[in-house]
Specification:
Length: about 325
């Protein structure tokens, strides 16, 4: 099996993936190995140096495990995310770990090494199996602990329309969850609490056009925790309700501005079943023409699947052959 090896080293997870290169078929067959970075209880993340060390330590183990599980895989190309976003000046040290490993592997195997961004990888993975028509313009929302952005996508080009001007959606969830004593990243556990509470729209994000601000919501929620005015379940429910209402408004405003009638939601925040349901219902009530597409839960968080898919596409663009095709 010819395959493209994808590598992604983000602030949250060390990820590797193999994307099979199948003749006459889209590259949707993939295998992956990934591990969340270890964060001590009570901490809201890692310093770049700490995250970089964990990536360097774990990458060999994950690549070895991936190749042992699929020994028939022949690495025809390697692809790696080297920056957070596909814009000039976008930089984060953690991505140097993945780049170093990818370039070394490609050089040793004498295969091409392709480069992409973490955000592009997220969106490529998010499109898998959704039914989104990528040949037509669509709105993309990247919702995570490090990014809250609204993008207009057309013919493979990305135009930034808006997003958060301070805290990201995932940061709001993580900071409140950690303050409540939950492990980082706090999304899954805070969602469990939210399912036991009832929101009354007591928490709001400031929204002006396509620019949102979550810092005020954070201050208010942390005040509730300190005062004991609301229970942890109520605070969790209000937090998720705030994010859902804000994201729904961003979808509606983004589609109105771009003219798109389909939207793709990606990133770790978008993996929440509670948020998916609330966002879908709010958008449907306001504009039934907009079709929402959510990344599969296992492909919503940080992963290398999209990176591998991008590498497979670049490999073909440069004339590389797939299984069943003559070299």
């Amino acid at each position: 099996m010819k395959a493209c090896l994808g590598i992604d080293t983000s602030n949250y997870r060390t990820s590797t993936a193999l994307c099979a290169l199948k003749s006459g078929a889209k590259d949707s067959v993939f295998y992956e190995e990934k591990r969340l970075l270890t964060v001590e209880l009570g901490q809201r993340g890692l310093q770049q140096s700490q995250a970089l060390f964990q990536h360097v330590t774990r990458l060999p183990e994950l690549v070895e495990k991936l190749m042992r599980a699929h020994p028939e895989g022949e690495i025809a190309a390697v692809c790696v995310s080297t920056q957070p976003r596909p814009v000039e000046g976008s930089y984060m040290p953690v991505f140097r770990a993945g780049e170093s490993a990818a370039r070394s592997i490609a050089a040793a195997l004498k295969t091409p090494c392709f480069f992409t961004s973490h955000q592009e990888g997220h969106l490529a993975a998010a499109r898998v199996g959704t039914g989104l028509n990528a040949d037509k313009p669509y709105l993309a929302l990247h919702l995570s602990g490090g990014t809250t952005e609204v993008l207009a996508v057309s013919e493979g080009r990305y135009e930034l329309l808006g997003g958060s001007a301070d805290l990201h959606a995932g940061q709001l969830i993580d900071r409140i969850g950690v303050k409540l004593g939950l492990p980082f990243p706090a999304g899954p556990e805070l969602e469990k609490l939210a399912m036991q509470g009832r929101a009354q729209a007591r928490l709001s994000a400031s929204l002006h056009g396509l620019e949102c601000h979550f810092s005020g919501a954070e201050t208010k929620a942390l005040g509730w925790i300190e005062s004991g005015e609301l229970s942890p379940e109520e605070i969790a429910a209000e937090t998720f309700d705030c994010v859902a209402r804000t994201v729904a408004r961003l979808v509606l405003a983004g589609c109105e501005k771009s003219g798109a009638t389909q939207a793709l939601l990606a990133g770790g925040v978008a993996s929440s079943a509670l948020l998916r349901g609330e966002i879908t219902e709010r958008v449907r009530k306001r504009n039934g023409r907009i079709r929402l597409h959510f990344a599969r839960p296992e492909l919503s968080g940080d992963n290398a699947v999209g990176v591998a898919l991008i590498g497979a596409a670049k490999y073909r663009e440069q004339g590389g052959s797939a299984d069943g095709e003559a070299d």
